[in-house]
Amino acid sequence: MNRFESAKEIYAKYGIDAEKALADLAGVTVSVHCWQGDDVGGFDSEDALSGGIQTTGNYPGKARTPDELMADIDKAFSLIPGKVKLNLHASYAIFDGNRADRDALKPEHFAKWVKFAKARNIGIDFNPTFFSHPMVKDGLTLSSPDEEVRKFWVEHGKRCVELSDYFAKETGYPCVMNIWIPDGYKDIPADRLSPRLRFKKSLDEILETPYDKSKVFITLESKVFGIGLESYTVGSAEFCLSYSTKAGIVPLMDNGHYHPTELVSDKISALLAFNDKIALHVTRGVRWDSDHVVLFDDETKEIAKEIVRNDALGRVFIATDYFDASINRISAWVTGVRNVQKALLFAMLQPDAKMKELQDASNFTELMVLSEEAKTLPFGDIWAEYLSRQNVETDYINIIKEYEEKVLVNRK
Ligand code: RNT
Ligand code: ZN
User: Fold this and answer.
1) CATH assignment at residue 343
2) Which of 203, 296, 377, 408 is the most interior residue, by most CB within 10 Å?
3) pLDDT in tens, 364-386
4) Which of 270, 333, 273, 265 has its CA nearest to residue 301?
5) Closest ligand 1 atom number to CA of residue 35
6) For residue 209, is it within any domain?
């Protein structure tokens, strides 16, 4: 008997169907962020990365052009099993001599990305880019007291809604459009309410743009603080949750955007109780919102368990969001996305029904024993079988090393 068959039998003793888990995982789409490939640089401006986020490290091989980024994404996708989507930022517009500012972006500026997605039969998710741009004035965009600045960014938001509609129509896959603004203050503000009211008004104006609500899902991402914006964040958790509920859009939680002892895994069920759909940015904060590569760690597993055991795979938009420039960027992509998928598979292989029963019977002794036992079942053999059925290599490091030697090191 091979290792998979034997592992399958062990799981079956716990009432767990490994074949079903493999089939279920193959149906899950993970939206892969394009910005891991070039340290959130984008192609539309020479401005340095701003907005309180930072990529650290200077590993060789960063993608410098759309063609290089596309080639790197292809390499990463060839090593990622299952279904993916491409998550783009507006700053990744491709102008080809036809430059437009962020308030004037049009489908033609993303035609190459659409072609790329169609050729690979994948969907596109999208993000307006409210940072790394000269119109970010005093760290503010949609909440700016300067009406010219605020209007510019509202127009950008509107263009992005139109673009999201275009992506959904062209690719045939729904488009998730995520709004995140960096707006905030480094030091204690004198007025916390007015910027939030201006942000609210700006969001209302953006959402007046017509779009197909069955194909475009607009999400709003909250944050706790940014670098240089430590004292006050306009789009805080309470603001974004309240706004999403009131406006009927989708709340997005990034697990780096809370105090370090606050866990998104505990927040998922609270949001599921009130929202038909929710969205996640899966990342790894180390001591702070550091956006390290996602690992197969406890919190990633716990997040996955909350999606799977609440039967919410069809209700949670899962996207990755991290940026590490200190290691091979393609390896970072593959490792992080595979870990999200691994965590989902691990969650699908838990004795959930039995554990719920034990909880309801207040049998916490047996619940602890069973959940500890489930941690050391032969999970690796099931994961290996998934990779082999999906025709992707288990040992990707040599493929990545070869690509580094042949392609990446030549980018000087
Ligand atoms: C920043 C947010 C946001 C960005 C991307 C690039 O703190 O997490 O999602 O990481 O939009
Ligand atoms: Zn995020």
Assistant:
1) 3.20.20.150
2) 203
3) 999 999 999 999 999 999 999 99
4) 265
5) 6
6) yes
